[in-house]
Amino acid sequence: MIHLIWVALICIGFAFAAAQGNIEVVTKAAFDGAATGVTVCFGLISVLVFWMGMMRLAEDGGLLQKISKLLAPIVAFLFPDVPRNHPAMGYILSNMSANLLGLGNAATPMGIKAMQELQTLNPDKQTATPAMCTLLALNTASITLIPTTLIAIRLNYHSAHPAEIVGTTLVATAIATFAAIVADRWYRSRELRRPPANPPSQTALTPQPPQTTATPASSSTAPPVSSPAARRTGITAVQSRDTTWKG
Amino acid sequence: MLNFINLISTWAIPAILAFIPLYAYAKKVPVYDSFVDGAKDGFSTAINIIPHLVGMMVAISIFRASGALDYMISWVTPWIKSWGVPGEVLPLGLLRPLTGTGSLAFTTDLIRTYGPDSMIGRIASTIQGSTDTTLYVLTVYFGAVGIRNGRYALKVGLFSDVVGFVAAIAICLLVF
Q1: For chain B, what are the domain ranges?
Q2: What is the ipTM metric for this complex?
Q3: What is the mean pLDDT of residues A235-241?
């Protein structure tokens, strides 16, 4: 679907500009858009570098694992196919709490970290797992408790009650999030029923071959991933394979 | 209540910033090395996203600049006005999944023009706060791990945007 939307955006834009006789707009817009993309990424660098450093500290110190153990039941309901002690749980939780607090910029690196952890459980590295789709659904619905940016803007324009939208936002956000979870569940169960070309979430339950060799028998009690260092090398292996594939 | 919320939003990040290193240090983690190690990951992630974001931004930019978005908006506006909804907020529903900065700019403009405490201002604020830039989130998150087939994620994201948009308008008309 993303392919269709991408082509449609470009072609409709092209057709419109052509019909109105100002096709030169397309060229300018294309280069402007490219510049915006790079600018946004460079803006992200500082935030990503900083927060991912912090997150590594939280992980190495054992804080992340502690939090995820505490709140595991809630996340286990939303992400049934992620092993309970997997580090992805911790990142998913920090992503959700950052979203709740309206810390937009801080939520993105945690979400990306969660994605990278979920990718280690993914049998097909180019296709999203159901857990990844759920994480995206939660993020696009953007569960927000305090819309800080909006309150700031309203304050700026001398609103009598800058925070009066907190309540309405909360309700709207809750409804959107609920809808996202329901839709996600519906698609998930539909994919499970359909005889798939590649095996569905069941495969995500069984740990990856290279990881199981470390702790085959005790995997139910001990954390499935032995040491952070071992997992890290696992990730870099995956990434390097990806880049060679891209060519 | 409001004071409490303000307190949380100003203290949350500083408190986290102080607590995480302290906790890790107490657990005898080589904190600085560990931080730098993780930070390196952040850098490569940011660089990996660039192609994905450039691709998406180019398409969206062409779509907007050509006037196609304006045409879509003018086509739908009378239809939604007949439902008693101020048509001025409609562009937001179309902009929001496509561009975060664009829709924030539009919301700010609505608030500036009609006032933050007008119905339009309130609805715009609620929409902006309760939905997200689906295409951007999808691009960044999937781009960071090299996912090419997002399955049904986009459909779910767009669906929840529509629900959020409608819910925001309905709640505001109901409450204010």
Answers
A1: 49-175
A2: 0.77
A3: 36
